[in-house]
Amino acid sequence: MAIVWSKKAAGTLYEVRSAGNSLRLYTDGVFHSQYNASQLLTGHVWDLLMLPAFFYSPNTIKRVLVLGVGGGAVLHMLRKFVAPDLIVGVELNPQHIYIGRRFFNLKHSGIQLIEADAIEWLKRYKGDKFDMIVDDLFAEKEGEPVSVVKANRRWFSCMLKQLNKEGVIVRNFINRDELLSSAGLKNPYIAEKFSSVFRLNSCFNENFVAAYVKKRVSSGELRKNLIDTPGLNPTLKTSRLRYSIRRLK
C-alpha cells in the first residue's frame, strides 16, 4: 500500500494509505477506516455496524448517533443505504475529523461531526433522542485496538437515556467474551430493557458486533430488508456483504 498522506502529532502517527481504489486510515499502525466512493461496503466490521438498521422498515431510522467516527466508513454507509434525516458523529481525535473531511468526503449536510469526548458528551447531551446509537469507541495500545469504555450497567444506562423507545444500540466488541459478558446480556436491570439481542460477525473479521433492540425483531426481517435494498442483496454472488447472525435473546 502506498502512503498518500502522513502526519505525526502529539507522538501519534496518522497515515492515509491507498489500497487499490480505496483509501485507508491508520493510526499508529491500527486500521481505523476505509473509503471508496464507488464501493462503500468495506468487507470489514463497519458493514456489520450498519446492519441492525435493517431490523426496521425503510424510513424508520431517522436519527443516528455514532460514537467514534474514525474515517467515517459507517457514516457513509448509513447515509447511502439507510438515509436517516441526521447522523451525528462524535469523535475525540481532531486528526480523524480532519482526515475524514479531507480524504473521506465527510462533508454532507446530513452528517454533523462533533469534536468531543464521546462519553462526556453523551452524559451531558440534552437534545432529541436517537433511533440508533453505534458505539465504536476504540483507542490504540501497543499497536492493538482496545475498548475505551466497558459495556457495563453505567454505560448502557447512559446510552439508554438517549435512545428512543423502539431504538437499537449497536456495539463493536474486540472478541466474543466481551460481548457475552456485557451488561446488555448479563445485568438483569439492563437486559430487561431489550426485547431482542443479536450477535453479528464475519469470516473477514475477528470482531463481533452486538445489536441490542428495544422491540422484538427477527433475522428474517433483516434479511428481507437487505434483499430489497439496492446494493446490499446478500444473496447475489456479486455482493460484498457477508455476515453471520445469531440470536442471543
Question: If you had to describe this structure to a student in words, what would you say it looks like?
Answer:
This is PABS domain-containing protein. It comes from hydrothermal vent metagenome. It holds the Pfam family Spermine_synth. One of its GO terms (biological process) is polyamine biosynthetic process. Helix content is 25%, strand content 34%. It is of the alpha/beta class and 249 residues long. An 8-stranded mixed sheet has the order 7-6-5-8-11-13-12-14, sandwiched between helices. A 4-stranded antiparallel sheet has the order 1-2-3-4, covered by helices on one side. The termini are far apart. It has 9 helices and 14 strands.
Order of helices and strands: EEEEHEHEHEHEEEHEHHHEEHE
If strands are numbered along the chain, what order do they take across the biggest sheet? 7-6-5-8-11-13-12-14
Q: Which class best fits the helix and strand makeup?
A: alpha/beta
Count of all domains = 1
Termini distance? 42 Å
CATH class call = Alpha Beta
Q: List how many beta strands DSSP finds.
A: 14
Rg, nearest Å: 17 Å
What name does CATH use for the topology? Rossmann fold
Shape: globular
Overall pLDDT metric: 94
Helix content: 10-25%
* Helical run tally: 9
In the CATH classification, which architecture applies?
3-Layer(aba) Sandwich
Give the low-confidence spans. Answer: none
CATH homologous superfamily classification: Vaccinia Virus protein VP39
Major sheet details: 8 strands, mixed
Determine the strand fraction and express it as a percent band: 25-35%
